[in-house]
Amino acid sequence: MNVLIIGANGQIGQHVVRKIQESSGHNAIAMVRKEEQKAKFEEQGVKTALVDLEGSIETIANAAKEADAVVFTAGSGGHTGADKTVMIDLDGAIKSMEAAKQAGVKRFIIVSAIGVHHRDRWMNSAPYYSAAKHYADVWLEKSGLDYTIIRPGGLTNEPGTGKVKVAVDLGYGKIPREDVAAAIVASLENSQTIGKSFDMIGGETLIEDALKTL
Amino acid sequence: MNVLIIGANGQIGQHVVRKIQESSGHNAIAMVRKEEQKAKFEEQGVKTALVDLEGSIETIANAAKEADAVVFTAGSGGHTGADKTVMIDLDGAIKSMEAAKQAGVKRFIIVSAIGVHHRDRWMNSAPYYSAAKHYADVWLEKSGLDYTIIRPGGLTNEPGTGKVKVAVDLGYGKIPREDVAAAIVASLENSQTIGKSFDMIGGETLIEDALKTL
């Protein structure tokens, strides 16, 4: 499977690219914005697409045309301004969905954030961030694409444990970015995750087994 | 017809309230956020609902329960921060649509902005503003409500002329806020505007006649 990773240079994205390259039968196409990012991935033997997510749907669709799946891990992270949150987390995500459709790619996996499907759990400090994630998720659910929406808890840089807890609704918890990436790759290989949206935190169950409970 | 005006204290909202009160057979319910705004409208004999648009859908639905139509004219105006744009122009609008549905109100008229249905016409200086308006409009089109989406050009405080130009796509032009308000009230009385989304600028055609061409 050829997988276009949008946001490949991000903290989760880099894990996703590496895990896809390490897996058998998958190839990553790292979508990046800057020449130096492109060079870095190419040195690692990773195929790249130089595309600005704030550009046109057509340029994103062009990057997706050799892909069998799109993984959207781009995100302003909640620490940039609200303007970038709208243009990346909301509009960038929606453009990517439309681009996938234009390119005939059915499979689409997005990284959202825990609890954003409940307005009363939106971040007090940055409700616009939760709103942007939520509306992108809703758009995807209505897109007709074969979607998986992963809503991880608080992201850490701890090494992955390979074990998680997943459910439609979970209380707050943390999870290593590496485990989020592993769950993305496992979802690509598990058609049972199609049409599913779920919270995910660190847990006691192997990722592959956890995804089977959805 | 009882009409809930969300954003009643705004520049367009105040014109809408006045025109509805002057019309025969309609009554305004001015939804406002502050006690002093409520007092001001009540002094003018206008019914009010004291509701924070950044609050719950239920409180908005409660304000809508005696209404036959909802007019959404609230807006951060593109001059506040992007965070408020997301929470008012996008999330506030969508919550109002959900509230209308909860309250059993079918008719919903929203004030959008010229050209936002074309990404290449989004404001360079504030694309997040155009994005927020656009996604609220798309949500409304898919809501199942009896919608009208009015996308006026550059708003002025000139006195209304009662004459406009309307079409799905128009080049940029200006229009007095008073004429936007008049078009809202005329749309309430014209079922032909249901399910229509259109640009509107100042023109040569009487508002009532212009709306019939849609």
TrEMBL record, chains A, B:
InterPro entries: NAD(P)-bd_dom, NAD(P)-bd_dom_sf
NAD(P)-binding domain boundaries: 7-190
Entry superkingdom: Bacteria
Family matches, as Pfam families: NAD_binding_10 (PF13460)
PANTHER family per record: FLAVIN REDUCTASE-RELATED, UPF0659 PROTEIN YMR090W
Stated name of the protein: SDR family oxidoreductase
Organism: Heyndrickxia vini
Taxonomic lineage: Bacteria, Bacillati, Bacillota, Bacilli, Bacillales
